Amino acid sequence: MTRHVRTAIFPVAGLGTRFLPATKATPKELLPVLDTPLIQYAVDEARHAGIERMIFVSHPSKAAIERHVMEDARLTRELRARGKENAAEALSEAALCPIEDDVRFVMQNEPKGLGHAVGCAKDHVLPGPVAVILPDDLILGPVGCLTEMVKAYEAGKAGHLVATMEVSEDRVHRYGVLSVTGKDGPIVLADGMVEKPKAEDAPSRQAVVGRYILDASIFEALETQTSGAGGEIQLTDAIARGATSLGLGGFQFSGTRFDCGSKAGMLEATLELAMEDPDCLAVLKERGLVEQRPAVAA
Ligand code: G1P
Predict the structure, then answer these.
(1) Is residue 294 predicted with pLDDT exceeding 80?
(2) Which pLDDT score is estimated for 16?
(3) What domains appear along the chain, each with residue ranges and CATH number?
(4) Number of the ligand 1 atom closest to the C-alpha atom of 236
(5) φ, ψ of residue 89 in degrees (nearest 5)
(6) With a 6 A CB cut-off, is 131 part of the ligand 1 pocket?
(7) If you take atom 6 of ligand 1, which residue's CA is the nearest one?
(8) Is the minimum distance from the CB of 176 to ligand 1 under 6 angstroms?
(9) pLDDT value, residue 15
């Protein structure tokens, strides 16, 4: 059985209620961190990881996502005609091409949960394991999280590999949490996973964040998955059912994760990237938000 990861699924159908009113007319995946929408970071991460097919599980009300990720030949032409060659080039490089790139859009018409969303991609995946990327979990670092995970997955044995990080006890109720049995390098071994447990019921503090590499049998598991936490079809529950037979690993990624589905997380991510942008850094310094270093005498 191949362990080569060729497909990435982006569940982007959610209503974004945590970010209203910003998400009333704009999909949350198009909210920018500085000048780049969340979905762009996710697409770039998948590209760097060598993903061949990208499947967006979207909603009819969120057509703007497709407009953003796909090439806009008219806009590029218009920019070139106005002498804005650099902007045209940058946009066209970031975009997916309908001819050269393998992209699918599938609609999830009803909000039945993350597990249901992933299941909607079933008929479109390439053979082998599939990656799932939740764009509102932004992970920044020198190496893309999915790139690291693909490498670990291909070298390892676990059927399902999920990105994990340790969180404090008062935060476990926000996440899928692993039932940890041991450790193997950067991989936490687990025999189960619970969606949004109360602190007192949580099997560990290893929280799952939005990157998954899943054995292809996940689609069968999702077909028979009954609703769980919040009355939704949970991806966590379907993963947990295969944990002992397929093997479940938690991958401790090297980057920093920002919860861009929340205001605080979005602000943190914005500040992180602002520090790398000279104009933004100058503003932060002026406002005393970053230490002003005295000029070094020549
Ligand atoms: C989803 C998953 C949860 C995971 C989280 C990571 O929850 O269901 O297991 O820990 O993403 O961000 P959501 O945040 O969509 O409620």
Answers:
(1) no
(2) 86
(3) 7-279 (3.90.550.10)
(4) 9
(5) -65, -45
(6) no
(7) 209
(8) yes
(9) 87
